[in-house]
Design a protein that fits this description.
single chain; alpha/beta; Rossmann fold; 7-stranded mixed beta sheet; two-stranded antiparallel ribbon; 16% strand
Length: 250
Protein backbone atom coordinates (compact mmCIF):
# COMPACT_ATOMS: atom_id res chain seq x y z
CA UNK A 1 0.00 0.00 0.00
CA UNK A 2 1.16 3.53 -0.75
CA UNK A 3 -1.45 5.20 1.46
CA UNK A 4 -2.99 4.51 4.87
CA UNK A 5 -6.37 2.84 5.21
CA UNK A 6 -9.18 5.35 4.84
CA UNK A 7 -11.24 6.02 7.97
CA UNK A 8 -14.21 3.66 7.84
CA UNK A 9 -12.52 1.20 5.48
CA UNK A 10 -10.87 -0.89 8.18
CA UNK A 11 -11.30 -4.68 8.23
CA UNK A 12 -12.95 -6.07 11.33
CA UNK A 13 -13.33 -9.33 13.23
CA UNK A 14 -15.93 -10.34 15.80
CA UNK A 15 -15.59 -13.35 18.12
CA UNK A 16 -18.69 -15.45 18.47
CA UNK A 17 -20.12 -18.92 18.64
CA UNK A 18 -19.22 -22.12 16.81
CA UNK A 19 -20.56 -21.00 13.41
CA UNK A 20 -18.97 -18.33 11.23
CA UNK A 21 -19.81 -15.73 8.59
CA UNK A 22 -17.37 -14.34 6.04
CA UNK A 23 -18.59 -11.02 4.60
CA UNK A 24 -16.90 -9.61 1.46
CA UNK A 25 -17.15 -6.10 -0.03
CA UNK A 26 -17.24 -5.16 -3.70
CA UNK A 27 -15.00 -3.80 -6.47
CA UNK A 28 -13.44 -0.40 -5.57
CA UNK A 29 -15.46 -0.50 -2.33
CA UNK A 30 -14.53 -1.14 1.27
CA UNK A 31 -15.81 -2.95 4.38
CA UNK A 32 -17.88 0.18 5.09
CA UNK A 33 -20.53 -1.05 2.65
CA UNK A 34 -20.82 -4.40 4.47
CA UNK A 35 -20.15 -3.47 8.09
CA UNK A 36 -23.80 -3.32 9.11
CA UNK A 37 -24.45 -6.78 7.67
CA UNK A 38 -21.33 -8.16 9.35
CA UNK A 39 -22.44 -6.63 12.64
CA UNK A 40 -25.84 -8.27 12.22
CA UNK A 41 -24.15 -11.67 11.94
CA UNK A 42 -21.99 -10.91 14.97
CA UNK A 43 -24.99 -9.78 17.03
CA UNK A 44 -26.71 -13.03 16.11
CA UNK A 45 -23.78 -14.97 17.59
CA UNK A 46 -21.69 -15.79 14.53
CA UNK A 47 -17.91 -15.56 14.54
CA UNK A 48 -17.58 -12.95 11.80
CA UNK A 49 -14.81 -11.77 9.50
CA UNK A 50 -14.98 -8.64 7.34
CA UNK A 51 -11.71 -8.43 5.36
CA UNK A 52 -10.32 -5.56 3.30
CA UNK A 53 -9.42 -6.81 -0.17
CA UNK A 54 -5.95 -6.05 -1.62
CA UNK A 55 -5.67 -2.64 -3.28
CA UNK A 56 -8.88 -1.38 -1.72
CA UNK A 57 -9.61 1.16 0.98
CA UNK A 58 -6.48 3.30 0.59
CA UNK A 59 -5.84 5.07 -2.73
CA UNK A 60 -6.80 4.05 -6.25
CA UNK A 61 -3.08 3.83 -7.14
CA UNK A 62 -2.89 0.81 -4.85
CA UNK A 63 -5.62 -0.97 -6.78
CA UNK A 64 -4.30 -0.35 -10.29
CA UNK A 65 -1.79 -3.25 -10.20
CA UNK A 66 -4.09 -5.73 -8.43
CA UNK A 67 -6.02 -8.54 -10.12
CA UNK A 68 -8.54 -11.28 -9.42
CA UNK A 69 -5.67 -13.50 -8.26
CA UNK A 70 -4.95 -11.08 -5.42
CA UNK A 71 -8.57 -10.72 -4.32
CA UNK A 72 -9.41 -14.41 -4.57
CA UNK A 73 -6.25 -15.35 -2.66
CA UNK A 74 -7.27 -12.95 0.13
CA UNK A 75 -10.81 -14.34 0.20
CA UNK A 76 -9.45 -17.89 0.27
CA UNK A 77 -7.09 -17.08 3.14
CA UNK A 78 -9.88 -15.41 5.13
CA UNK A 79 -12.20 -18.38 4.55
CA UNK A 80 -9.61 -21.01 5.47
CA UNK A 81 -8.73 -19.14 8.65
CA UNK A 82 -12.39 -18.78 9.66
CA UNK A 83 -13.28 -22.36 8.74
CA UNK A 84 -10.40 -23.56 10.91
CA UNK A 85 -12.09 -21.94 13.90
CA UNK A 86 -15.74 -22.72 13.15
CA UNK A 87 -18.09 -25.68 12.84
CA UNK A 88 -19.96 -24.25 9.84
CA UNK A 89 -19.34 -21.14 7.70
CA UNK A 90 -21.59 -19.06 5.46
CA UNK A 91 -20.07 -16.71 2.88
CA UNK A 92 -21.76 -13.45 1.90
CA UNK A 93 -20.77 -10.86 -0.65
CA UNK A 94 -21.94 -7.78 -2.53
CA UNK A 95 -21.12 -7.23 -6.21
CA UNK A 96 -17.55 -8.52 -6.74
CA UNK A 97 -17.73 -9.68 -3.14
CA UNK A 98 -20.60 -11.83 -4.35
CA UNK A 99 -18.42 -13.11 -7.18
CA UNK A 100 -15.78 -14.07 -4.63
CA UNK A 101 -18.38 -15.73 -2.39
CA UNK A 102 -19.64 -17.74 -5.37
CA UNK A 103 -16.06 -18.69 -6.28
CA UNK A 104 -15.44 -19.89 -2.73
CA UNK A 105 -18.66 -21.95 -2.73
CA UNK A 106 -17.59 -23.57 -6.01
CA UNK A 107 -14.24 -24.56 -4.51
CA UNK A 108 -15.36 -25.54 -1.01
CA UNK A 109 -18.29 -27.94 -0.97
CA UNK A 110 -18.30 -27.84 2.82
CA UNK A 111 -19.52 -24.23 2.90
CA UNK A 112 -22.88 -24.22 4.69
CA UNK A 113 -24.52 -21.46 2.69
CA UNK A 114 -23.95 -18.78 0.04
CA UNK A 115 -25.44 -15.27 0.28
CA UNK A 116 -25.05 -13.31 -2.97
CA UNK A 117 -26.20 -9.68 -3.08
CA UNK A 118 -26.29 -8.11 -6.57
CA UNK A 119 -23.45 -10.47 -7.41
CA UNK A 120 -21.46 -10.07 -10.63
CA UNK A 121 -21.54 -13.55 -12.20
CA UNK A 122 -22.93 -12.99 -15.70
CA UNK A 123 -20.35 -12.58 -18.49
CA UNK A 124 -20.47 -9.20 -20.22
CA UNK A 125 -18.28 -9.38 -23.36
CA UNK A 126 -19.16 -5.80 -24.20
CA UNK A 127 -17.15 -4.68 -21.17
CA UNK A 128 -13.98 -6.21 -22.59
CA UNK A 129 -14.70 -4.58 -25.94
CA UNK A 130 -15.07 -1.24 -24.16
CA UNK A 131 -11.89 -1.64 -22.08
CA UNK A 132 -9.50 -3.00 -24.70
CA UNK A 133 -8.92 0.19 -26.74
CA UNK A 134 -8.47 2.28 -23.59
CA UNK A 135 -5.94 -0.17 -22.16
CA UNK A 136 -4.09 -0.30 -25.47
CA UNK A 137 -3.94 3.51 -25.42
CA UNK A 138 -2.28 3.40 -22.00
CA UNK A 139 -5.20 4.56 -19.88
CA UNK A 140 -5.24 3.32 -16.28
CA UNK A 141 -8.59 4.49 -14.94
CA UNK A 142 -11.98 5.83 -15.97
CA UNK A 143 -15.07 7.15 -14.17
CA UNK A 144 -16.06 5.79 -10.76
CA UNK A 145 -18.73 3.12 -10.45
CA UNK A 146 -19.33 3.36 -6.70
CA UNK A 147 -22.12 4.93 -4.66
CA UNK A 148 -25.10 3.55 -6.58
CA UNK A 149 -27.53 4.12 -3.69
CA UNK A 150 -31.18 5.18 -3.82
CA UNK A 151 -31.39 6.48 -0.25
CA UNK A 152 -30.75 10.20 -0.01
CA UNK A 153 -27.73 11.25 2.01
CA UNK A 154 -25.98 7.88 2.01
CA UNK A 155 -22.47 7.77 0.58
CA UNK A 156 -20.53 4.61 -0.13
CA UNK A 157 -16.85 4.80 0.78
CA UNK A 158 -15.37 3.86 -2.59
CA UNK A 159 -12.70 5.07 -5.01
CA UNK A 160 -13.43 8.06 -7.23
CA UNK A 161 -12.02 6.21 -10.27
CA UNK A 162 -12.17 2.69 -11.69
CA UNK A 163 -8.92 0.86 -12.51
CA UNK A 164 -9.27 -0.46 -16.05
CA UNK A 165 -6.91 -3.45 -15.92
CA UNK A 166 -8.38 -4.56 -12.61
CA UNK A 167 -11.89 -4.43 -14.08
CA UNK A 168 -10.72 -6.44 -17.08
CA UNK A 169 -9.28 -9.01 -14.68
CA UNK A 170 -12.65 -9.30 -12.94
CA UNK A 171 -14.38 -9.80 -16.28
CA UNK A 172 -12.00 -12.60 -17.21
CA UNK A 173 -12.55 -14.25 -13.82
CA UNK A 174 -16.34 -14.14 -14.33
CA UNK A 175 -15.86 -15.87 -17.69
CA UNK A 176 -13.70 -18.55 -16.05
CA UNK A 177 -16.26 -19.06 -13.29
CA UNK A 178 -19.06 -20.19 -15.62
CA UNK A 179 -18.26 -23.94 -15.77
CA UNK A 180 -17.84 -23.95 -11.99
CA UNK A 181 -21.30 -22.63 -11.09
CA UNK A 182 -22.89 -26.05 -11.37
CA UNK A 183 -20.53 -27.36 -8.68
CA UNK A 184 -22.26 -25.24 -6.06
CA UNK A 185 -24.51 -27.55 -4.07
CA UNK A 186 -24.88 -25.63 -0.82
CA UNK A 187 -28.07 -23.62 -0.22
CA UNK A 188 -27.94 -20.17 -1.78
CA UNK A 189 -29.73 -16.96 -0.86
CA UNK A 190 -29.73 -14.70 -3.92
CA UNK A 191 -30.74 -11.10 -3.33
CA UNK A 192 -31.08 -8.62 -6.16
CA UNK A 193 -32.19 -5.07 -6.93
CA UNK A 194 -34.44 -4.70 -9.99
CA UNK A 195 -32.88 -1.27 -10.55
CA UNK A 196 -29.12 -1.71 -10.44
CA UNK A 197 -26.87 0.66 -12.40
CA UNK A 198 -23.66 -1.33 -11.91
CA UNK A 199 -24.42 -5.06 -12.25
CA UNK A 200 -27.27 -6.02 -14.60
CA UNK A 201 -30.11 -7.68 -12.60
CA UNK A 202 -30.07 -10.75 -14.92
CA UNK A 203 -26.76 -11.65 -13.29
CA UNK A 204 -28.65 -12.82 -10.18
CA UNK A 205 -31.13 -14.73 -12.34
CA UNK A 206 -28.22 -16.46 -14.04
CA UNK A 207 -26.71 -17.46 -10.72
CA UNK A 208 -30.00 -18.75 -9.34
CA UNK A 209 -30.67 -20.84 -12.44
CA UNK A 210 -27.16 -22.31 -12.73
CA UNK A 211 -26.16 -23.48 -9.23
CA UNK A 212 -27.08 -27.04 -8.28
CA UNK A 213 -28.21 -26.47 -4.70
CA UNK A 214 -31.49 -25.08 -3.35
CA UNK A 215 -32.03 -21.38 -4.00
CA UNK A 216 -34.00 -18.72 -2.15
CA UNK A 217 -34.63 -15.33 -3.76
CA UNK A 218 -35.18 -11.93 -2.17
CA UNK A 219 -36.06 -8.83 -4.22
CA UNK A 220 -34.55 -5.55 -3.03
CA UNK A 221 -37.24 -3.37 -4.55
CA UNK A 222 -36.27 -0.11 -2.81
CA UNK A 223 -32.52 -0.22 -3.38
CA UNK A 224 -29.93 0.25 -6.11
CA UNK A 225 -26.66 -1.65 -6.41
CA UNK A 226 -25.13 -0.99 -2.98
CA UNK A 227 -28.22 -2.41 -1.31
CA UNK A 228 -26.44 -3.08 1.97
CA UNK A 229 -26.30 0.70 2.52
CA UNK A 230 -29.70 1.37 1.01
CA UNK A 231 -33.38 1.23 1.93
CA UNK A 232 -33.44 -2.56 2.02
CA UNK A 233 -30.46 -2.97 4.37
CA UNK A 234 -32.67 -4.11 7.28
CA UNK A 235 -34.34 -6.68 5.02
CA UNK A 236 -30.95 -7.98 3.86
CA UNK A 237 -29.71 -8.31 7.42
CA UNK A 238 -32.86 -10.04 8.64
CA UNK A 239 -33.01 -12.50 5.74
CA UNK A 240 -29.26 -13.22 5.75
CA UNK A 241 -29.12 -13.97 9.48
CA UNK A 242 -32.22 -16.18 9.32
CA UNK A 243 -30.77 -18.06 6.35
CA UNK A 244 -27.43 -18.51 8.10
CA UNK A 245 -29.06 -19.88 11.24
CA UNK A 246 -31.10 -22.30 9.15
CA UNK A 247 -28.29 -23.71 7.01
CA UNK A 248 -25.87 -24.00 9.93
CA UNK A 249 -28.47 -25.83 12.01
CA UNK A 250 -29.15 -28.14 9.07
Amino acid sequence: MTSPILPGAEPQSWPGGPDGALVIHGFTGTPQSMRSLAQAFATAGFTTELPLLPGHGTAVADMIPTTWDDWSAAAEAAYVDLAGRCRHVVVAGLSMGGTLAVWLAAHHSEIAGLIAINAAVLPQPEIAEFLTPMLEAGAQTFDAIGNDVAMAGVVELAYDATPLAALASLGAAIDDLQPQLGRITCPALVMSSPEDHVVPPPSSDHLASTVSGPVERVTLARSYHVATLDNDAPLIEREAVAFAHKVCAG
